[in-house]
Every structure is written in C-alpha cells, then in structure tokens.
C-alpha cells in the first residue's frame, strides 16, 4: 500500500514552449533512425541532469526499408537542456548481434539526485530476432552503470529476459522504488491470440523471474503494453518519506466485441507478485471505443494517468490501427506508407483518483492525432506529446499540458512546426524530480529530412533520411518541491492526500498551532486551532467549496509552514 508523508507544491504550467529544437545526431546522411511506434519510453534523465536516449536504426542504411535494425544510445554532454546536436555524445551501437533488434525501452534506477558519484544504472530492453528463417523475436536486456559524469558509453552484454516460442514484441521497462525492474511485452500465439506478459528482476537485471500472463483475455488480442511506477522524487533512497510497491500496466485489447478495441488497465499492489483483474478504462471513462496505443504515467500520489488515441470512425485493418503486428518487418523502422490517409484520430485522457474519471478530449483539433506519450513533472503538471496531421500536408509534433485535476481545456502548442518534413512517434522523458524545473522534454522521428523523397505523403516514408530530434523546456535545477521560510515546523506538517476529493487529514505531528486555509483569491475558507495531543484533524470539504488550488498554512509560535493542494470536483 502507498503511504504519503510529504505534500506537493503545485506550479501551474505555462503554455507549452520549446527551448530548443534540433537534431540529436549531427550526421545528416541517409539513415533509418527511428523511435518506433511502440509505447515505450525512449528517453530518461538521470540524477545529475543528463538525458539518455535509445532508438533503433537500420543496420545497413543504404539498403531498402525493412532491413535488420540495431539498437543505438546517446546522452547529453551537459546537465541542462541541449541546445544543438553538439551537446549530445556521438551515438553508439549498444547491441551487436546478428539478426534484427528494434523497439527499445529505457529505464533508470533510483539513485540519489544531485550526487555525481551515485549509481543511476540505466536499463534497456528490446525485441530481438536471430535473423534465420523460422526464428522468432525474444526480449533481451542490457545495462550501463552510469556512475560517472558525463556518463561513459559502457554497456553489458545482452541477456535474455524471455525466450519465446512464438514472438515477444514491443517491450516496455520501468524501475520501482527498491530498484525492482518491471518489463511488459506483447506475447503472440498464446491462445492462439496475443496476451500481455510480465517479468521482473530484483538484482539489477542479472536474473529474471519466469514470465506471467497478466492480461488474461482469452480469445482476444492484447497489444501495445505500457508499464509505470511512481516517479523518483527529491529524497535519496535512505530518506524516502513515501513508498509504493504498486506497478501499473495499460494496453489495448479487442476482448469487447461490440466495440473493439478498448484500453485496459491492471495493477500489482505488491511489486509484481499479485495482479488484480483488469479494468476497462474505455468503458468506465465513456470513450467511444476503437482505442489504441495507450501511454501511462504515475504521479507522486501513485495515481495513474493514461492518454490514448481513438478513431472517430472505426477503420479496417491497417498497420497503424490497434492490432498491428510489429513482427512483420515491412517498411519499418520508419512509418509505413499506408499510415497516410487513415481516418482521423484524436487523443483522449483519463486518470484514476479513485475510479476512472470521464475521458477528456486533449485537443480535438481537426487532423489525425496519433501516438501520445504522457508524462508528469514533480510539480503536479501533466504533459502529452503526440503527432498530428494538422495541415493535411505533413505531420507535426504537438504538445498539451494542464495541472493534475484541473478541468479542460488543455494548453496546446505545435512543437516541431516543420512544414517540409514529417515529425512522428514522440516519446516524453521520465526524470529525477530533484534535477529539473517544471516542464517536459521529448524526442521524435523526423523523416525525409534531406528531401530525398520529395517531402511528404507516402513516398516520404520510403526515404532513408530518418533522424532523431529533440525539444524541451526544463532546466537542470536541484530544487526542493516544498518551499518555506527560514523558520519551519521541520517535517511534522503534511497532508495525507493531494489532490483532495471529499476531504483529507492535515497532520501537525506533536505540535500545537493554528491552521488557516485560503483559496487563490486570498479568501479564508477555514480556521482551526490544533493541540499537540491531537496532532491532526480531518478537513471535510463541503460540496459548496469550488474546485481549485488552495493554500494551507500552519503557524506555531514564530515558525510556519505552507503547502498547496488541489481540490477536485466531488
């Protein structure tokens, strides 16, 4: 069970803006670099502020699309937002195996933020095929100690997570507190449909437990999984004031025949030992169905947030509708030419503060919104990156943001704004909370960057000039989440739940003092005196209290502490 002993300062996000937009690799020669259309994270930020990325690229860039791929890695050379390709280390191939390697996912262990000597070990998983006729894709793993600044390009030899009898596809990895590694993937031919499989490692990836079927939708296809745990926050592991063993997983599934597919969700309350029956997010949230490609993040209150794409009108079989088979190597690693001209899609969002909230349309702009990647920063702000065929001419990477729990609309922006190339498959970063300001960062695939195929439309997808690009608006800034004056209570004052639904316990420890609560206009909505032998009281919120952000002040003699909370609609 999650316990929370620290309240959050909420910083309202400004409109989405990009600090820099640039190619990561300065080599503009023809290459098949791609982040891929899987849901996995392709970028993380370590405790010293450095970004780390993984992607796949065709082994022989001079051949036609569809050839074998390898896994590549790069990192920034500065602990601040990179402003040009010169701020990135040259990409290195971290996998040199015969056959095909693609769809990597990266995660980072929970070392201490801000300590350059600390071990923020990086872990990468991907799908691998030996390349011989009749062989299938397995899930492999490798790691890098990442204990120096800037980090060296030192990676372990690949080791198997799961050896498949059919095909194991599109893996995703995350690391929970206690440095337990969690991997999910799409396992083909189980019954004989696909299911979501799971494995974990408790010893930094040296050994992996036997895989388990966690979707359990026999007679249906479970695909495109995403796994997430609570994000890393300020305290070093020895000083964590909260904990969570919960592991969250989402995927798309066509088990519900009247309206395939839906977005499903499950959780493990004990770090991957027991898995609860799935919940149908689409059905509970009121989505029209035909949903796919969910992206998942978890805030510091251990509440899951999911963004996904839905079709306005269900389409027939297509490589970019839910149900695609990523084991078929056609024009990958880049986009398939048939993605152009698909029926319009848009991005939906829901979260689970107790039960799944009614879904929200993130943008709803006319176009073709696809492949969202959702993130949450340490200050309670949600960020969603996605691709959109806004002009009907080319795809751009767009962004949306709002404060957790606040009503729509979302703040929207176009991030790539490139009229000459298609920008696809954005992946937002996860980061150490103590190393960044509010905001987010993402990478994506830019295709036909040398106009070798003429710029746009299906022919552009056949251009070998696919490159990895970056944009971001966070700085490296080791800053505490809670702020207070010089005289403080010293950790006895905290709020048990934030955001707040019907009410929450306000704790003052063994301290006597006065509680005052104000809304954003400065109006006092509650005054209460607390005696030391009581140490807390329950703030019971009436239905008349408006939704919004409230400030709670605790005054004890000459010392005081404050915290901001969000009150949600009851």
Looking at the structure, the CATH topology of the largest domain is Tachylectin-2, Chain A
Strand residue percentage: 35-45%
Total strand segments: 39
Shape: globular
- Low-confidence segments: 1-15, 236-242, 314-320, 479-490
Rg, Cα atoms, Å: 23 Å
Kindly state the mean pLDDT as a whole number? 81
- For the record, the count of structural domains works out to 2
CATH architecture of the largest domain: 5 Propeller
Helix segment tally: 2
Text of the CATH class of the largest domain: Mainly Beta
Write up what this structure looks like.
There is one protein chain. This protein is mostly beta strands. The protein folds into two domains: 3-99 and 230-452 and 459-472, Tachylectin-2, Chain A (5 Propeller), CATH 2.115.10; 494-567, Immunoglobulin-like (Sandwich). 2% of the residues lie in helices and 40% in strands. The strands form nine sheets. Strands 2, 3, 4, 5, 6, 7, 29, 30, 31 and 32 form a ten-stranded mixed sheet that branches. Strands 8-9-10-11 form a four-stranded antiparallel sheet, with no helix packed on it. A four-stranded antiparallel sheet has the order 12-13-14-15, with no helix packed on it. A hairpin with an 8-residue loop joins strand 9 and strand 10 (138-144). 54% of the residues are buried. Residues 1-15, 236-242, 314-320 and 479-490 have low confidence and may be disordered.
């Amino acid at each position: 069970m999650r316990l929370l002993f620290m309240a959050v300062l909420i910083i309202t996000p400004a409109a989405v803006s990009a600090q820099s937009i640039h190619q990561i690799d300065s080599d503009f020669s023809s290459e098949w670099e791609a982040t891929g259309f899987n849901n996995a994270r392709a970028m993380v930020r370590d405790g010293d502020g450095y970004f780390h990325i993984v992607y796949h690229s065709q082994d022989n860039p001079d051949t036609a699309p569809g050839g074998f791929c390898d896994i590549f890695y790069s990192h920034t050379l500065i602990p601040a937002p990179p402003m040009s390709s010169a701020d990135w280390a040259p990409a290195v191939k971290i996998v040199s195996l015969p056959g095909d390697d693609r769809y990597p996912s990266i995660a980072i262990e929970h070392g201490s933020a801000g300590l350059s000597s600390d071990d923020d070990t990086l872990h990468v998983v991907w799908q691998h095929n030996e390349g011989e006729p009749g062989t299938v894709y397995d899930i492999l793993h490798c790691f890098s100690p990442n204990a120096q600044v800037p980090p060296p390009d030192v990676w372990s030899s690949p080791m198997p997570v799961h050896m498949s009898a059919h095909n194991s596809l599109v893996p995703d990895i995350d690391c929970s507190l206690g440095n337990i590694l969690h991997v999910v993937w799409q396992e083909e031919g189980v019954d004989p449909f696909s299911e979501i499989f799971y494995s974990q490692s408790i010893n930094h990836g040296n050994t992996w437990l036997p895989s388990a079927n966690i979707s359990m939708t026999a007679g249906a296809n479970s695909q495109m999984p995403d796994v997430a745990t609570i994000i890393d926050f300020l305290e070093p592991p020895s000083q964590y004031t909260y904990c969570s063993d919960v592991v969250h997983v989402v995927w798309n599934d066509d088990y519900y025949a009247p309206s395939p597919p839906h977005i499903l969700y499950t959780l493990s309350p004990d770090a991957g030992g027991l898995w609860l029956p799935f919940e149908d997010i689409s059905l509970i949230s009121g989505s029209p169905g035909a949903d796919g490609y969910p992206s998942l993040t978890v805030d510091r209150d251990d509440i899951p947030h999911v963004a996904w794409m839905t079709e306005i009108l269900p389409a027939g079989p297509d490589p970019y509708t839910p149900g695609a088979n990523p084991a078929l190597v056609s024009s990958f690693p880049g986009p398939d030419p048939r993605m152009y001209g698909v029926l319009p899609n848009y991005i939906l969002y829901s979260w689970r503060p107790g039960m799944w909230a009614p879904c929200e349309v993130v943008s709803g702009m006319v176009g073709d919104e696809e492949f969202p990647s959702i993130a949450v920063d340490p200050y309670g702000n949600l960020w969603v990156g996605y691709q959109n065929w806004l002009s009907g001419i080319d795809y751009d990477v767009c962004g949306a943001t709002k404060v957790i729990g606040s009503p729509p609309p979302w703040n929207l922006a176009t991030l790539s704004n490139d009229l000459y190339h298609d920008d696809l498959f954005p992946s937002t970063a996860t980061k150490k909370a103590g190393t960044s300001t509010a905001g987010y960062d993402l990478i994506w695939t830019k295709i036909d960057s040398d106009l070798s195929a003429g710029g746009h439309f299906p022919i552009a997808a056949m251009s070998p000039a696919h490159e990895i690009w970056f944009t971001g608006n966070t700085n490296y800034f080791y800053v505490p989440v809670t702020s207070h004056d010089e005289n403080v209570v010293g950790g006895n004052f905290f709020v048990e739940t934030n955001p707040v639904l019907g009410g929450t316990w306000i704790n003052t420890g063994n301290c006597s003092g006065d509680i005052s609560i104000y809304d954003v206009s400065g109006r006092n909505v509650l005054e209460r005196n607390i005696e030391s032998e009581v140490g807390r009281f329950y703030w019971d919120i009436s239905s008349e209290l408006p939704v919004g952000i409230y400030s709670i002040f605790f005054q004890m003699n000459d010392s005081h502490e404050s915290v901001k909370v969000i009150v949600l609609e009851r």
